[in-house]
Amino acid sequence: MGTNKQKRSFSEALKYYADRYFIKAMGAMAKGIFASLLIGTILAQFARIPWAPLQTFLNFVVSVCQNGYVIGGAIGAAIALALGAKTFTLCSAVVVGAIGYMSGAGGAGPVGAYVAAIVGIEFGRLVEGKTKVDIIVVPLVCLMTGGLVGYLLGGPLGTFMRWLGEKIGMATYMAPIPMGIIVSAALGLILTAPISSAAVAAMIFVITEGTDPNTAEGIRLAAGAATIGCCCHMVGFAVASFRENKWGGVVSQGLGTSMLQVPNVLRHPQILIPPVVASVILGPLGTTVFQMKNIGISGGMGTCGLVGQIGTFTTMLAEGTPWWVILLKVLLLHIVAPALIALGTSELMRKLGWIKKGDMLLD
Description:
Elements: H1 2-46, H2 52-65, H3 68-82, H4 87-102, H5 110-127, H6 134-174, H7 176-192, H8 197-204, H9 213-240, H10 242-256, H11 262-267, H12 273-287, H13 307-318, H14 323-352
């Protein structure tokens, strides 16, 4: 009996911490990046409007949004909210996140802010509300734990993530077809799983100063393939489940998230086949024929709020691709083709009896 209780206790603890750190915290990290770096990237496009007062204001806002300390602070605050921190811990998490983001040569980036914030927040929550001088104790505890961890580990972790991103980029540049398949399929599955694909993309699809041009090109192509894979899952599930979920399902999955299908995937894993087939077919087309590109967090957003499409536009416009060419490619590879392939595959599976009515019904 004791052994069974211990096993159950360990299983419950594992589930709790996995949900807390890999679902809630990583999802919050993506929101912090979105509210700072990504919004700055979007506003930078409006700064091209030829009106001096507007350009001056927007360029100032963009410079603030893209400052590493601001991004790290936004990540820290978002994670603190997600983990249920109180006021002093939340405020301290802003500083801890900034420390983690900027630690190491060249800055650790999102992974540094993520690790530092989690450590600082958890230690801060241990003491918050337990002293009469929380205003001093809580920030001290957060900074001396999370700040120290971010300072010591942020740099090595950031270096590792950049190395991983560069390896993926170089592999994509040298072998665009197999890497297009792998990256598109993998990020699509991560997006549907209860893990933040946006956070994964933000940590991997990064180009820093001094990155080899071929590697940088490969990273952009890999992020483009990732965007396609995410779109295949969101648009794919939206159209494949139309019989069950109608237009409400199209909006909630196509512009929201395919993660809504997780309970159904656990019961009927075969429903993953239509979006995966679409991502496997379209990913390599994106890295070769159509040269679809993206960068950073938007590579893991798919059609969620059209962030993946905005990132594709900003990335490819910066390289001189005409807007109408980008629009046609986005419509084809992000929306039309994923819808047609996923729908065709799902209808075939329904006729074969592999997918039954109600298998993809949302609660």
